[in-house]
Structure formats: structure tokens, C-alpha cells
Design a protein that fits this description.
By secondary structure, this protein is of the alpha+beta class. The chain has a single domain, classed as 60s Ribosomal Protein L30, Chain: A (2-Layer Sandwich). The protein is built from five helices and seven strands, in the order αββαβααββββα. α1 crosses α2 and α2 runs parallel beside α4. The N and C termini lie far apart (51 Å).
């Protein structure tokens, strides 16, 4: 099953509201800490927003379960055990700071692996249905999640792109939130991030696919002298 398929996936998680259970499980799986950052955009450029937009990113710093393993190692067992728990604890924090799933309009995801790990280790925790399908379900979305992934030292900037949670081609909601964790990822850690926004970019006005004129390379004939 691919994350892109938006396939429904059943995963055994504690009942909603059983926060101590999921938190304890996260600790057992190697989560060292969770960072949540928010930003409220009140003005942009020379204009003022009629309604503020709040963006948030929740980051889990977790021990890399594959650190030191050879490239032929099967990543699936740890992925299936860890990714659903990360999806739950991160989306819980997003809904808490943004006022619930009904307030969230855009979402995205990211993972950054420490220097002793592989890029594929980061990918394993966010690019399968064990994470993507659940983030989408918990945030009431239908779109595929846009993403970023990287391999970096502690304190690196993590840019998490987002788009509309039910209409991915809606350009007004293309946006990014940037964060860093000063002491992560350690060489043997992975930072996994889920992000969301309560609205579009400030003053969106570049049109959309429904209003675009057809554009091909022939447009250059109109531009070049």
C-alpha cells in the first residue's frame, strides 16, 4: 500500500482520550521530547489581514531504530510499530493548539535524520500509510500530504511545506512553516514533524487551476521580442 493511494489502514491505537497510554508508548519507542511551535500571522506586506492565520508544527525527536544497520535491513517492522504512534501524538498537539480539526485547512509533514542514519530512515517514518494515512484521518483531510525530508546536524532549519487538506491544487494554501530544534537530531535520532495551518497565505491572489489560461512553451513567443 502506498501513502499516495489514500488507502484506509487499521492500526491498533489506544482509545481517543487515553493520552497517558499513547504518551507512555511513545517514550517506550524512544521519543526523547516533543517540540511545538506556533506562529500567528497578523500582517504581511503593506496590508493587514482581516482574519489572522495560525500555523503550527509539532516535532517528535525519536531514537533512530535503524542506526548502525546495513542498507539491506528491512525497515517495515519498526515503521509499522512506530509511525502510527507518532501520527497520533503529533496530530493531537496540532489540534490542541489550533482549536480542533475543524479549524485546520492545510497540512504537511517532514522528517530529518541525524548524520549516522540514512535518508531512507527518515522516509520510512513519514512516507508510508502508517503515518500519512493516519495524519490525514486524524486531521479530517483527503489530500496527499506534501513533505520535506533531509539529513542534518542538530539545529538545522526544517522547512515544512503545506497545502489544502482536501483540495491540494488550491494555490492559496501553498505555504511553509520553518522550525529548528537546537539539540536535534543527534546523530542517532530522527526528527518527525507534522504541521498544519488554519488558513491560506496572506492576501492570496495568483489564481488557481480552475481559472488558469492554458500555458505551454509557446507563451515565450509572446514574451520574447
Amino acid at each position: 500500500m502506498s501513502e499516495a493511494g489514500l488507502t484506509s489502514l487499521a492500526v491498533d491505537l489506544p482509545e481517543p482520550g487515553n493520552a497517558p497510554g499513547i504518551e507512555d508508548l511513545a517514550r517506550t519507542l524512544g521519543v526523547r521530547k516533543i517540540n511545538v511551535v506556533t506562529e500567528e500571522i497578523l500582517r504581511d506586506g503593506h496590508g493587514a489581514l482581516a482574519t489572522s492565520v495560525t500555523r503550527a508544527a509539532a516535532a517528535a525527536i525519536i531514537r533512530n531504530p535503524w542506526s548502525g544497520s546495513v542498507v539491506s535491513t528491512d525497515l517495515a517492522p519498526h515503521t509499522e510499530r512506530i509511525a502510527p504512534v507518532l501520527a497520533k501524538i503529533l496530530t493531537d498537539r496540532l489540534t490542541a493548539v489550533l482549536g480542533g480539526t475543524g479549524e485546520i485547512e492545510a497540512f504537511g509533514k517532514s522528517a530529518v535524520v541525524g548524520l549516522n542514519g540514512e535518508m531512507e530512515h527518515a522516509a520510512a517514518l513519514i512516507h508510508t500509510p502508517y503515518f500519512g494515512n493516519l495524519v490525514r484521518e486524524f486531521l479530517d483531510g483527503t489530500s496527499i500530504l506534501c513533505f520535506s525530508d533531509d539529513r542534518a546536524e542538530p539545529g538545522a532549519s526544517i522547512a515544512v511545506p503545506m497545502w489544502h487538506k482536501t483540495a491540494a491544487s488550491t494555490r492559496s494554501h501553498y505555504q511553509t512553516i520553518t522550525l529548528n530544534v537546537s539539540d536535534a537530531p543527534h546523530p542517532d535520532e530522527i526528527v518527525v514533524v507534522a504541521a498544519a495551518s488554519t488558513g491560506p497565505r496572506p492576501h492570496p491572489r495568483i489564481g488557481d487551476r480552475t481559472t488558469d489560461r492554458p500555458v505551454t512553451a509557446e507563451i515565450l513567443e509572446e514574451i520574447l521580442p
